[in-house]
Amino acid sequence: MSRGGFWSVARAVAWRNIHSFFTNPAIAIPALLLPMFFFTAFAGGLSRVDQVPGFDYGAGYTTFIYGFVLLQASTFAGIFTGFSVARDFESGFSRRLFLAAQRHGGIVAGYWLAALTRAIFTVAVITAVALIAGLDVNGNLFDLVGLYALVLLVNAAAMLFGTGIAMRLRTMQAGPAMQVPAFLLLFLAPVWVPYDLLTGWVQTAASFNPITLVLEAGRGFLAGDPTEVLPAFGAVLLLVAVTVLWARGGLHSAERAA
Amino acid sequence: MRRSTLAVQVGVLARRSVVRTLRQPAMVVPSLVFPLILLAINASGLDSATRLPGFPTDSYFQFALAIPFVQGALFSANSAGTNVASDIESGFLNRLALTPLRRVALMMGQLAGILALGLIQAVTFVVIGVAFGSGIAAGVSGALVIIALSLVISLAFGCIGAFVALRTGSGEAVQGVFPLFFAALFLSSMALPRNLIETDWFRTVADWNPVSYMLEAIRSLVISGWDGEALALGFACAGGLALIALVAASSALRTQMVRT
Amino acid sequence: MSEAAIEATDLVRDFKKGPRAVDGIDLRVEAGEVYGFLGPNGAGKSTTVHMLTTLLPPTSGTARVGGHDVVEEGPAVRATIGAALQEAALDPFLTGTEHMKLQTALHGMRRAEAKSRSGELLARVGLTQAADRKVGGYSGGMKRRLDLALALVHEPRILFLDEPTTGLDPQSRSALWDEVQRLASDSGVTVFLTTQYLEEADVLADRIGIIDQGRIVAEGTPAELKAEISRPTLEIIPAEHGELARTREVLARFGEPANSSPKGAAVLLSEGEAQLADVVRALDADGIHLQHLQLHAPTLDDVFLAKTGRSLEGAAEEEAEQPDPEQAAAA
Which domain holds residue B61? Predict the structure, then answer.
């Protein structure tokens, strides 16, 4: 393949992004700290909640929260990659990239590879911490493959969403526009208690939120009791499909501006 | 030419600090909106926790209403710190240092901005709380005490923010400290009463965390009425922290403003 | 001799990290004088100004400003001076008028007096129209002019301007120069001005001190300094390119060769302009026809070059690493 081909562009973009992630503590540490913090605060502070009548989750509260924090970590690994895209536009790096690369899709693929790497790294650290804190996994190998497949698909969707915004706005100021919807989507779901124990407007919101399905399926895998597997994969694949289109529109917008 | 009096100095600097704070909607709006969003999500998402035996109220909204007062104060810390840091970075502090300004006036003027923001927050949260159906057990005077306490809390965190700024002279350092404040909020009796926290280490941290007592003092006025012990602990923690932070900030100012 | 407006003896300032920022400076600025402190970035200009304005205690040495010791009598010094320090230090969220209010109040002026003084100063620096706009929307030149107005609120006898025009476009720069010149000539204010621009020092200053690596390497009026170099450069372009080598030979008789354009030859005239006629006669005698002849008078850059062995423009980058006084003081 010629210079500037799809995968060589992707590799170059991914390498640069991953390199700056692992060499720049200001980027890596918040990405790790945030999920770690949620895990500690929720699993530690709220564990009594699993004694609420009707709380029917077999694998314990730590595992229940781990299911949420996994999604949170992988979502933000994707969102923070969106930040990096915005940073690349601000520094003018993207301009050179767009001029040099012939297959611009490779740029997005490169950012995706970077987001994937960041997600795997963050998830691995969180999992290690959770295991020390008493994570109880009842699921078998197939369940775990299902769980992490869901988590990484969510990561891809978040990265595509963030990249779509970054490529349209092309400034670091776009940070909140990526972060706030992601936070809302994550928290308007059964974060602390199962769906049936939610009340009021959050329950209504959660009933429309695709993350609810993903979260329930993920927790099902962890407990060795797969539930809602097809709807969850359906929901997350739909999210990926929509965000692919969104990111593609962003890419075109950036190409017009370049 | 006269020498300006301390009162005049405090007055003009307070005015400037308030005006400056209010002219930055990016500082005021999130400090109101984010605590309210968290409150709304918490109230609905964790309402079932009220079914735990021993939970003090059957409305999680009422229980969680104390949180915004403290969370808003964390934003005060951020805005006070950012304002002070930008004064140092821009050299504005040097401009002030060249006038017959007294350091104590500078400090007090800065606090006025913190208090103004704190007042806006506290009143908003009280009004929202009442409007959405959380009564305040201690009544109108209780609401006034809540506002007073939350001003002391704002002062405490605001002075910490100012201290970090004066010590480092950097807005980035202030931003870097912000997550620590949030950790302090989350590792408290924020989500559950301390006696219902199951994990031992977490309960110990919450026991030692002054934020727990600030929350519990406000909570007591909201949920159960007048509780002298809770109020004393809350005011002592907030006041003590404010005092320590104020002394630290003043000493940092002395180093930062070294004029002869 | 009457008391100088500014007088410094062996002024030294060390910072914890980096080389000595100010390394034994002696200064004497007479009342009513405009003194230009010229040097590259990091030469120690700002550190010196910070010491003279009482914002930074000297490590050793003494300085008196307006007759007061900068260490022992800080408040008295501050009452005497006005200062516009590097990078107009303004609050972007306040208006010009609000800045004036704050400044006049801190100086203890009565409200009516403050109001008229503010109006007068804002008018003087051409900011009456913009007075009620927030400073965040001001241009660089407007900010510097507001900064100057603020420094003048309490009618100081001595004014410190630290790089007043750095980063300004040429129009704003010359507007500010006019204002400073007017101040000095009309009100008899002593001006201590730092700059890294040769032209600025040349235009504004009665006397110039050239500072490099914390030391004053030359001092005098612009004319004196240039006269010290005294030797102008003569550049000749022969009509025929083939005669360039012979042109060089002829010029070599009149002094050391100097840099020139590729088509020409240049010489540093060893005895000054007086040699010009001799050079032309010598070229004529050799039958060399001239296309172009130019005499370059010595500039302050030549002075800087002669004193430090470096050009002022090039020196800035080398020394930009030095800590800036505020940050280092806080450390």
Answer: 25-85+114-256
